Amino acid sequence: MEHSKLPRVSLGMPVYNGENFVSEAIQSILEQDFIDFELVITDNASTDRTADICLEFARWDRRVRYVRNAHNLGAAANFNRAFELSSGEYFKWCAHDDVLGRDFLTDCVRALDDNARHVIAYPRLLGIDETGQLTSYVERVLPDMGGPSPASRFRLMVAAHGWDAAMFGLWRRDALAKTTLHEPYYGSDCALLAEMALLGTFVHAANAILFSRDHPTRSVRLPSSERLAWQNPDGSTANAFELSRRVKHLVAIAYRHRRTAPLGRTLFHLVAWVLDPLLIARFCLEVVGVVSPQLRIKLRGAGLGALKRIHAVSDRSPG
Questions:
Q1: What is the pTM of this model?
Q2: What is the pLDDT of residues 73-84, one digit of tens each?
Q3: What is the set of domains in the chain, with CATH numbers?
Q4: Where is the signal peptide (predicted)?
Q5: String of b and e for 201-228 (b: at least 16 CB within 10 Å)?
Q6: DSSP annotation string for 35-99
Q7: Euclidean distance between CA atoms 122 and 69, whole angstroms
């Protein structure tokens, strides 16, 4: 029996209770002008109409595959499952609430095809609201990620604290397969991007557009307790230790790829980053949270308020 050829591109859409936006997200994928792809939807045991919506798409388009987890695995494991079930040469994670411009895949595939050193092709990222209307948000442009030094690229991505355009760009599968993938803490994607920077360069696909939707239930809008439940639905820990876990993850990444970038250089960049006063304050808050979670919340709120006042004063300053 002849086997059908593998798709060039796999798109993985992890979703949990996404009935409000998942239909529009899937539709934007199926309307791409690049058609050689598969869409793998991994449903984290949704309790709303997500399953019905996704199964309807799978019924009339064979490129769509719907997989429902028996129980909620947590966000990181569900993201990883979408990749593990895919087969394409290139891979992209798709948020269930985002929308792709029609030529997103064409432009990103071309960018990766043009240079084997590129491991991520990233788009322009524009904000949209709950109704799909453009907002004023345009994601910041980060420094050039095409440099020859893996340790320098690692330093830039560690300092960036994440980058949605790259996170939801198109990734070279064989490079991603060499990584630790997502770990079960909020902010793991920041470490994963830093790991990919060790493995190759990032390229801007200038004509590709990702419309990133902002809404009240988006993960970045959730309070820390709900973010913890998003990653750990079993409620196994009372303190997220998000920053501490990211540092531990980054150290493991530096050691894992010590033949690609000298361990001394990557660790030097990590230490320089950790010594930032704001990060030290965040570490202290995590320690305080062990003793008194309520005090941690109050101190964090006071700190955020002070930062807002500083920014407000700075904005009003002349010149």
A1: 0.89
A2: 999 999 999 999
A3: 9-219 (3.90.550.10), 223-316 (no CATH)
A4: none
A5: bbbbbeebbbbbbeeeeeeeeeebeebb
A6: --EEEEEEE---SSSHHHHHHHHHHH-TTEEEEE-SS---HHHHHHHHHHT---SEEEE--TT-E
A7: 29
